[in-house]
Fold this protein.
Amino acid sequence: MSVWTLAMLAAPAVILSVTEQLSWAARIANALFPVGVFGLWLACSRRVAATVLSTIPFMVLGAFQIVLLFLYGRSIIAVDMFLNVVTTNPTEVGELLGNLLSAILTVCLMYLPPIVCAVVGCVRHWCAGRRALSVVRRASLSALLVALVAIAVSLPGSRPVRPLIDIYPLNVLYNIVLAVDRTERLENYES
């Protein structure tokens, strides 16, 4: 369950590492950073089912990112896309989603199984073994360290890795902050 969840949480970053115009260091960091962070998060508790459920907000972002990749073939979720989500009416949403049936089915097949397994695991009080958690922690920490080394190695170069722009999901979270800020500034704008 947690391996599938980790793969699904990291999938958008791995795909973006291929589709985006990134340096080799940014590709490595972008692919491995989420593996390291989410792997450490999933291995932080023996109650892995509850931990999987705690990642649902990131699964939603991942699903959104995958749908946009189906739609446009590249690029992270932009600030304007978040603004469109909160200002679009149900008719427009229905028209758009009707054209994205294959993307929606893919996202459902990717993200629903770990959620269903996690709910069952919570009900049945599943716990991960200490040894398995230890292996996941070591592997995740290794992935995170390689990502950080790739970032550090890129700094003196002509195309340094910019985590808030190049690394998923940091870039998407940063765009959410920018969208909220833009919305607040527009609402408080005095003519």
Q: What stands out?
A: Residues 2-187 form one domain. The mean pLDDT is 91.
